[in-house]
Amino acid sequence: MKSPEILASEHIATTRRYFLRLGAGTVAGLAIPDVWAAGNIDHPALVKAMSKLQYLTADKDFRYVGRIKPRISEMSDSERKAAGLTRDSWSLEVIVDSDSKARVRKPMTKKDNTALTFDQLLEIGKTKAVSFLQVMTCNNVADPLGMGWWEGVPLRDILWKTDPDEKVRRVFYHGFHRDDPKWMFRSSLSINRILEDPPGDQPVILCYKLNGEWLSPDRGGPVRMLVPGAYGFKSVKWLKEIKLTSNHLNNDTYAEKGNDVDSQMKTFARILNWKEKVKSGKAIPLTGVVQCGASGLSRVQFWLKPKSESWPSEDRYFDAAPWKDAEILPAPDDDWGDLPKVKSLPEIRHQTGADGKPVTWPLRNTIVHYAALLTNVPEGDYEIRVRTIDANGIAQPMPRPFRKSGDNAIQQMKLSVGN
After folding, report:
1. Residues 142 and 236 in one domain
2. Which candidate, 139, 123, 120, 147, places its Cα nearest to that of 56?
3. Which residues are within 8 A (CB) of 160 and not within 5 positions of it... i.e. 6 or more apart?
4. Strand (E) positions, 31-110?
5. Residues 168, 275: one domain?
6. Confidence of residue 151 (pLDDT cuts 50, 70, 90)
7. Rounded Cα–Cα distance for residues 243 and 233 (Å)
8. Backbone angles phi, psi at 226, to 5 degrees
9. Looking at residue 11, what DSSP letter applies?
């Protein structure tokens, strides 16, 4: 799973350029290397990361989330092949739920040697493949897991090949789990979301590439589900079986422990690269990342509150606080990341134009960085908070403040200014 340190390195160059644009007078006395290398990210890799923005996350740098132990990546090549987890051994069954009234006339099964193979999926992809940008995020984790450019085949193009009847209401699916019930991870979607995309949205895909490379075992390779705008539990890894059902209820493993399985990603801000102790008289850079969810983004705001200052308990989301606007940083120019297959992006439906530039900014279901500079901060102890204002003008954590539909609580960090 992607760490705050990696997220910090990914926006460091852009924020540095932002502060330098403010002018030498504004940042006089600010020791840039010391500021960026302080705190929990004080290591040589950060200095190297300052040279360019890493908007997209390398496969190895994603924060890992998975139920199976040991990891799939810890299996030998021969073990993965025997388990159907290599590109030459993978196959997907698409069948009917035997407990439902739904029917398919052409099921895809291993028994009949009609299960979908990886080569067949790629052949369909020659004319049907789509790709899009999306942040991967968990609804119970406070920070994004990683930002990717994903590629695959729309699931609907596979489902239609089974010739389903009109009784299909929902699609159940699960991934590899060593045939051990304790490792099984299930999820589901409405058949309507799979067959039809809302305007401006991307299709649900059978995904086999990340940032131009084949999916690795830790990212769910050879093939995973990828559900646009949804939290990661919908995008099941190591996909092995799909069932079409007339059942109107979900079967999601994540429904356990009160999780909302129909939640779309929320919009929220997080602080990165923060130094909790600063000498008086120093300018203080504030930088971070925003997850742009279903409601988009219009503004990012921050609030520096003296620790000794009380706040009314009834204003739980600090609506009356004297928030100030930070700057939303622009999209990368040409370099989307230190990735061999992504020097520039192709035209992506609803996201980029023919030149590979975003058609709007920020993009929903992706990330964006922000920056601000705090100056003339008196000596003392403080709390700093950040929040987003979405495209509907609603401040974080509203309109959906409940954690089990996605963790978007307002973050608080400490700051001590003195000698």
Report:
1. yes
2. 147
3. none
4. 91-96
5. no
6. very high
7. 17
8. -135, 115
9. H
The phi, psi pair for 99, rounded to 5°, reads -95, 10
248 and 273 assigned to the same domain: no
The region that residue 56 occupies, defined by phi over 0 for left and psi between -120 and 50 for alpha, beta otherwise, is beta
d(CA 80, CA 136): 24
289 and 221 in one domain?
Answer: no
Distance CA 419, CA 406 (A): 40
Residue 197 identity (one-letter amino acid): D
Are 419 and 280 in contact by the 8 Å Cβ rule? The answer is: yes
Does 67 map to a domain? no
Residue 197 main-chain phi, psi, to 5 deg: -100, 130
Total of domains in the chain: 2
Domain boundary among 234, 258, 282: 258
Q: What is the mean pLDDT of residues 100-124?
A: 97
* pLDDT tens track for 369-409: 888 888 889 999 999 999 999 999 999 999 999 999 999 99
- The one-letter code for the residue type at 224 is R
Q: Which residues pair with 382 in a beta bridge?
A: 306, 415
Residue 65: inside a domain: no
Any idea what the CATH number is for the domain that residue 387 is in?
Answer: 2.60.40.650
**Amino acid identity for residue 58 in this structure:** A
149 and 33 belong to one structural domain: no
Q: For residue 27, give its domain range.
A: 4-54+266-418
CA–CA dist 235, 305 (Å, integer): 39
Which pTM value belongs to this model?
A: 0.87
Instruction: Label residue 54 by pLDDT band (50, 70, 90).
Output: low
Tens of pLDDT, residue by residue over 331-346, are 887 667 667 788 778 8
- Rounded Cα–Cα distance for residues 405 and 414 (Å): 27
Shared domain for 162 and 215, answered yes or no, is yes
| Res. 203: pLDDT tops 70 | yes
Report the pLDDT value the prediction gives residue 39, as an integer from 0 to 100. Answer: 31
The percentage of residues in the chain with a pLDDT greater than 70, rounded to a whole number, is: 86
* Domain-located, residue 352: yes
pLDDT over threshold 90, residue 280: yes
Is position 116 within any domain? Answer: yes
How far is 163 from 340, CA to CA, in rounded Å? 40
Secondary structure (H, E, C), 120-139:
HHHHHHHHHCEEEEEEECCC
List the one residue out of 340, 343, 368 whose CA is nearest residue 356: 343
**Do 241 and 114 lie in a common domain?**
yes
